[in-house]
Amino acid sequence: MPVHGLTPILLCLLHVWIIPSPASSHPQLSECRLIQRTALCNDAKLSSVPPGLPRNIEELQLNYNHIQTLQDDSLLRYPSLTSLSVACNSLEKLESNTFQDLSLLESLNLANNNLYIGYPETSQALKKLPGLKVLDLSENKLEDEMAATLLQNLTSLEYLNLSGNLLRRLDETSFRDLNKLKELNLQRNIIFEIDGAFASNSKLQRLNLAFNNLPCLTDFHMTHLVVLNASHNFIEWFISRQDLNDTFQLETLDLSDNKLLFFPFLPSHSHLRNLYLSHNSLRFYEQLADNATSPNATTTVEFYNLRKYASNVTAELWDDSLHGDVSSLEILDLRGNQVEYFPYGFIQKMPFLSRLQMCTNCLKSLNLTYEQFPGSLYELDISNNRLKQVVADEGTLAVLGNLTYFNLSLNDLEWLPPRFFSSLPSLRSVDLSYNHIDICLSEEAEISTDLVSSCVDWRNVVSLGQLYLKGCNLELIPSSAFAGLSLTHLELSDNPGLVLQSIQSLSRTLQHLGLGNTHIQDFDFSHLKNLKFLNISRNSLAHLSPSLLTLDLKVLDLRDNRLSTIPHGLANALAPNLQIVFLTGNPFNCCQTEWFRAFEKSKTIQMVGLSDIECEDPVRTQQLQHLESSVCFNEAGESIYWYILLFVSISLSFVGISVMVLLTFKPQMLKKSIKKKCLKSTSY
Ligand SMILES: *[C@@H]1O[C@H](CO)[C@@H](O)[C@H](O)[C@H]1NC(C)=O
Ligand SMILES: *[C@@H]1O[C@H](CO)[C@@H](O)[C@H](O)[C@H]1NC(C)=O
Ligand SMILES: *[C@@H]1O[C@H](CO)[C@@H](O)[C@H](O)[C@H]1NC(C)=O
Ligand SMILES: *[C@@H]1O[C@H](CO)[C@@H](O)[C@H](O)[C@H]1NC(C)=O
Ligand SMILES: *[C@@H]1O[C@H](CO)[C@@H](O)[C@H](O)[C@H]1NC(C)=O
Ligand SMILES: *[C@@H]1O[C@H](CO)[C@@H](O)[C@H](O)[C@H]1NC(C)=O
Ligand SMILES: *[C@@H]1O[C@H](CO)[C@@H](O)[C@H](O)[C@H]1NC(C)=O
Ligand SMILES: *[C@@H]1O[C@H](CO)[C@@H](O)[C@H](O)[C@H]1NC(C)=O
Ligand SMILES: *[C@@H]1O[C@H](CO)[C@@H](O)[C@H](O)[C@H]1NC(C)=O
Ligand SMILES: *[C@@H]1O[C@H](CO)[C@@H](O)[C@H](O)[C@H]1NC(C)=O
Ligand SMILES: *[C@@H]1O[C@H](CO)[C@@H](O)[C@H](O)[C@H]1NC(C)=O
Questions:
Q1: What digits encode the pLDDT tens for the residues 340-380?
Q2: CB of 153 closer than 6 angstroms to any ligand 1 atom
Q3: What interhelical angle do 667-682 and 640-665 show, nearest 10?
């Protein structure tokens, strides 16, 4: 696991930043700082507990020191302590009487130490804390037996953190005495089996099992649990006990990043509100079951507990109605699965569904009328599926009055219900990028009365603020397209050859305009007074529109054009407000770089990919950032190199011509000189 151990490192950094260096206000305790009854002795190179602190301190922090042992007498002087933190030391053991007079201690943080070495004695020490509620033992290389030993008799414990240890198997002995436990963090261990481990923890409400090696969770019957996080394991099956009549208190179940093949078999009665199932291999199989005409076909799977046969579990494989109680669901996250369809009545069972995240699945069609989406639906993300069409009748659309975010990008959409978006009064953000849609010309929309329409239109959707239409092969956007809208975001990038008629109607509201890779030239931006983000990259622009002068842009993308310079006046006008600018991929002229200095001078501008911004002069291409003062001849930017080159070539030609003339008209001179040389060289 590459991320193993990241949390404590972050924690360490955090402390280093938050806690100021030893203050001078208490010179007598140079390594500690006192704030009321709290002593902060973090990161002070201590190898033992400092003895000179006030006797009445209630909280003592000794993180990031070099303490190896807490001795019997280490804390004798501080009987009022309620909270002690010795995280990130090299603590190997706590002597058995360390806490003999600390009956008030409630919170103990021993994270990130080496307690695996002296755990038996440490365990004796912990037993003397009758009121301990919070214990952090994360990152101590603890194995199963060590943890069990350390936790013996800690009957008052409510919060326990064992994350980042070496636990493999949990059973009934693991947490037997912790019958007040409310919250247990077991993240980032190597747990592969859980067998009757939580039977004595009837108060447990929050359990985190993320980043372990669990292959399945069957026979789930922890009715008091409110939050279960089992993400990032290898779970193929989640099956809760189906014969229980009790209502499970479960509200949040996180099974994302596992290997689920089936929708989890949820409790038959629960208050489950948030179900996270992203990045599994989940799909529905009802259609398969209908096809399974072969009499021997398996329709159930049975799980045997190999040790004691204590709890065999049978699951009906193809029965999609057996997914349990989903009637309280508000968030259903199914991103990155293989869902092709929803079983009959599935969505209907969730009258409070607010967010449905279906991005990156295999949906082929979606009939909103058939599925009966509830009026509570707020966000619908069906991007990156295989949808060719979305179907809905007027009645259905009237119900979806709360739908606010609608992502349809990355499908093969050609057909949508007519006046689709106009029928959704709360719509704020629509993403239709990477589909094959067209924008209705004004007449088309009015005459179309079919059930489906091949063009889309948003006229008069007053609530609409963000419209994404990237990569839709759009050719013409009529000026009527945005009538009655108050868009703040308009993304039209990746529509090469786009003809954009006036967007004057958006001049008061538009803040973000994407026109990258549209081959657009000479667009007049001057009326877009509120524009903050402009993308005009990849448009082969040789010069910038003077209308940019009037804008107060914060982000400007000019990458991959043919710009040789940015006019001085424009650069100076942009510099005060600009925060991020993209400039790479332009053939800038090294002799016209005043603009660069203007941008460099402004401390607020971040030039993305600064080291890749290059300029050219006749001799070479160099980094604008490290421009060696190119000798440039005049303001027009003609380099003196040109003149030198010109001079040299003229001189050379002159010499050449002279030689030829000499050769032609005075051949005897040549002969003479050769003769002279020959005579000399042979004289020996
Ligand atoms: C500690 O727990 C064990 C069983 O786990 C029990 O036998 C023993 O009496 C307990 N000791 C104290 C001091 O509570
Ligand atoms: C351990 O878990 C507790 C809550 O259970 C949390 O407050 C603490 O920050 C966690 N410690 C680490 C090192 O993650
Ligand atoms: C589950 O744990 C993972 C890893 O710590 C975390 O990223 C995720 O947000 C948690 N899930 C929930 C629902 O809190
Ligand atoms: C659950 O309730 C049903 C009827 O409501 C009853 O027949 C059954 O025995 C109950 N099961 C348990 C385990 O209580
Ligand atoms: C078999 O399943 C396919 C979908 O996978 C379905 O289209 C077809 O109608 C089914 N055939 C029968 C006989 O149920
Ligand atoms: C079905 O079961 C019968 C008897 O149990 C067996 O003879 C037959 O080969 C099986 N058919 C298939 C397709 O497995
Ligand atoms: C579990 O299954 C095994 C094997 O079929 C069986 O011997 C055992 O009695 C079953 N246990 C229970 C509790 O049903
Ligand atoms: C959509 O579902 C409704 C209600 O079940 C049905 O009447 C209609 O024919 C379906 N439309 C399509 C195109 O499947
Ligand atoms: C729509 O949203 C509002 C405000 O969040 C809420 O009060 C209302 O109940 C929702 N409508 C439906 C049908 O759920
Ligand atoms: C829509 O979904 C795509 C793909 O999942 C994502 O890249 C894009 O950012 C989403 N659009 C919005 C506006 O969130
Ligand atoms: C600008 O548009 C281009 C072309 O679609 C895209 O590659 C680039 O990421 C966009 N720039 C920003 C800053 O979003």
A1: 999 888 999 999 999 999 999 999 989 999 999 999 999 99
A2: yes
A3: 90
